[in-house]
Amino acid sequence: MPEKLSEEMYRTLEAVRRNYEEIMETIARAAEASGRRPEDITFLAATKTVPPAVINYAIGLGLRHIGENKVQELLSKYDEYQLTDCDLQFIGHLQTNKVRQIIGKVSMIQSVDSLRLAQEIAKQSAKQNLTTDILIEVNIGREENKSGVMAESLEELLAAIAALDHIKVRGLMAIPPICDKKSDVFKFFDQMQQLFIDISAKTLDNVNMDFLSMGMSDDFAEAITSGANMVRIGSRLFGARIYR
Ligand SMILES: *Cc1c(COP(=O)(O)O)cnc(C)c1O
Question: At the N or C end, where does the chain have fewer CB atoms within 10 A?
Answer without folding.
Answer: C
